[in-house]
Amino acid sequence: MSHDPTPLDDSPFRSEPSTRDQAPQYVLPLVVRIERAAPPARTDALETAARAVLVMLNDERSRGDGEWAQAVRDWQDARIRKVVRRARGAEWRRAEALPGITVTGKSAEVRVFPPVPLDGWPRDLARLQVSGTELEDPEPPVDADPSAPVLWMNPELGMSAGKAMAQAGHAAQLAWWELSDEERAAWRDAGFPLAVRTPGPDRWRHLTASRLPVVRDAGFTEIAPGSCTVVADHPALR
Predict the structure, then answer these.
(1) Are 156 and 112 in contact (CB under 8 A)?
(2) Which secondary structure element, helix H or strand E, spans residue 3, and what is its range?
(3) Rounded CA gap, 214 and 229, in Å?
(4) How confident is the model over 40-83, as pLDDT tens digits?
(5) Straight-line distance from the first to the last Cα atom of the chain, in angstroms, rounded to the nearest whole number
(6) Are 118 and 25 in contact (CB under 8 A)?
(7) N or C: the chain end with fewer CB closer than 10 Å?
(8) How does the average pLDDT of the chain come out, rounded?
(9) What is the phi/psi pair of residue 44, to 5°?
C-alpha cells in the first residue's frame, strides 16, 4: 500500500485553476438505494458513502496492476469528482449487475463504481436521477465516538443528501491520503469506522482553524466555489 498524500496547494477539491484542470476529467459514480417504502436515514447514507469511497480506494482492483487501477489513477490526477445518483427496484438491480462494490450501513446501501470519463457514464447509471435524495434522520444522531474518525459537516451550508454524501466521501479520501501506511492499515482492518456529524458554529470555526484536512468544494453544483464543506477529523491527524 503506497502513501500518496496530495499537497495542499494542489488539492483536487480546491476551486483555483491548476494543472489538474488540463488532465482528462473523470468521475467516481456512487448509487444510493432509496426504496419508497424504506428510505435510508440521512446520516447513515452519508457515512456509508464515505466508507464506500475508502473501500474503493483500498480494493486490490484499484491498486497496482488491478483492473480498475488506471482509471483510479486518472481520476486522482484530475479534479476529483464524485456524483451520487439514486435507484430503486429494477434500477438498483441493474446497477448491481455492473462492476462495482456495494457497501451496507445500518439502513443504507451504496454501490460505488470505478471512475468513468465525465461524459462516458454507463447507460444504466447515466439514466439514474441525481435529484430526489432528500433524506431525513428519524432520530438525532448520537454523539460521535471521540476515538473514531469524525467527518464534520459545515453547519451553515444547506446541501442535498446526495451532495452531502459526495462531500463526506471527499473528506474520507483526504483523511486517507494524510495517513501513514500503518495508520491506513489499522483503519482498514477495523472496517473503516467513521461518523458524520454537524457541529455547532463555534466548534466549526475551531475545526476549520485547525490543521485537519478541510474539503473546499470546487463549486460544480449547489454551493459556491471555495466553500468549506467538511473537516476530516481522524484521531491520527489530531
Answers:
(1) no
(2) none
(3) 7
(4) 999 999 999 999 999 999 999 999 999 999 999 999 987 789 99
(5) 23
(6) yes
(7) C
(8) 89
(9) -65, -35
195, β-bridge pairs:
150
- Residue 172: name the closest of 31, 4, 53 by CA: 53
Q: Which of 123, 107, 131 is nearest to 41 (CA)?
A: 107
Say how far apart CA 67 and CA 70 lie, in whole Å: 7
pLDDT, position 20: 56
Choose the weakest-confidence range: 19-33, 163-177, 211-225: 211-225
- β-strands 116-117, 109-112 pairing: unpaired
Contact assessment for residue 115 and residue 161, using Cβ atoms and an 8 Å cutoff: no
At residue 12, does pLDDT exceed 80?
A: no
Phi, psi of 76 (to 5 degrees): -75, -20
Q: Which residues contact 111 (CB under 8 A, 6 or more apart)?
A: 30, 31, 33, 52, 95, 96, 100, 101, 102, 103
How far is 72 from 66, CA to CA, in rounded Å? 10
Which single residue is written with the C-alpha cell 467516481?
A: 28
Rounded Cα distance between 166 and 181, Å, is 24
Residues 2-11: tens digit of each pLDDT: 333 343 445 5
- Output the nine-digit C-alpha cell for 180: 501513514
